[in-house]
Amino acid sequence: MKRKKVVYIFCCLLIIFSSLTVLGQKSKCTDFKNGTFEYLVSDKSLPKAVSTRTDSIQIDSYSDKKIEFKSKINWLTECRYELECISVNKPSENSQIGEKVIVQIDKIEGKKAFCHYEYDDGTIREFIII
Q1: What is the CATH number of domain 2-129?
Q2: Helix (H) or strand (E) holding 49
């Protein structure tokens, strides 16, 4: 009887601690809602990006190509947001205006957020925000 009680208490504690870990990670997504961040992409053909973000606007600067995109940001959940390009500083990139992408923050480790987004054609791109 005593052993069952110990096992029951252990299971309850395990469930509580597991729930706290998940909730703790989600609450950290808010750390990435405002500020200046660098994006690391595994695809080396893409230039390094620095983003400055407020609650509603994100500005992505690509120093290698001297391009700057301004996007409206709409947070769908604590860890998921939609970006819609509203302006770009190079006329050759005007086709990007109006394009939307949904970004998912998959996990957080320290000050890094591991994310992905999917293009309309199904291509998935993974990146890290630091």
Answers
A1: 2.40.128
A2: strand 49-53
**Residue 12 banded pLDDT, cuts 50, 70, 90:** very low
Other C-beta atoms closer than 10 Å to the C-beta of 53 total 20
Residue 98 has φ and ψ, to the nearest 5°, of 95, -15
Q: Of 100, 102, 65, whose CA–CA distance to 86 is shortest?
A: 100
Would you say the pTM of this structure is higher than 0.85? no
Question: What digits encode the pLDDT tens for the residues 15-62?
Answer: 444 444 444 444 489 999 999 999 888 776 677 789 999 989 999 998
Whether 39 contacts 113, CB under 8 Å:
no
Could you count the other beta carbons within 10 Å of the beta carbon of residue 130?
11
The answer to whether residues 86 and 97 touch, using CB atoms and an 8 Å cutoff, is yes
What residues does each domain of the chain span?
2-129
